[in-house]
Specification:
Blueprint (H helix, E strand, L loop, with lengths): L13 E7 L4 E3 L4 E13 L5 E13 L3 H5 L7 E15 L2 E15 L37
Parallel strand pairs: 4-6
Antiparallel strand pairs: 1-3, 1-5, 2-3, 3-4, 5-6
Length: about 150
Amino acid sequence: MADNKLRMPNINSVNIAGRLTGDPEVKLDGKLLAFSVAVSRSYKDKQGEWQEETGFYDVAHWTDYAERTAGYLRRGGPVYIEGSLSWRQFEVDGAKRSAVEIRAQRVAPLDWPEDGAGKSAPVQKTAAPASRGIIETVIPEEDIPF
């Protein structure tokens, strides 16, 4: 007889674009890049008025390129993040606490710094080494449809 239990896949995937709330911090001998991102969304309330709501998310990006990646990110700068949710427990003054954060697998700045002549210059890529076969492209902010 067939098993009638509902089979549900376990999916843990996060894709967000937002702005850094502060400059990123490089921790643990340059292996961890930690920062927070503000992500806003607009919606209509029951009265039909547009409202805006902003959420703030902590991000942990474990990479051998934390220092270099941090050089392309700054407070207020737009950033795209792909990753998963991670839950952790810890103690503060004997009290147990928990936190949910985004564990980033990809971090891509969405702005283009000015070169010396005042022209837009593409940002160098900082993500995965070529041996992993990942090719990344930074999309200029004006090309993003939202």
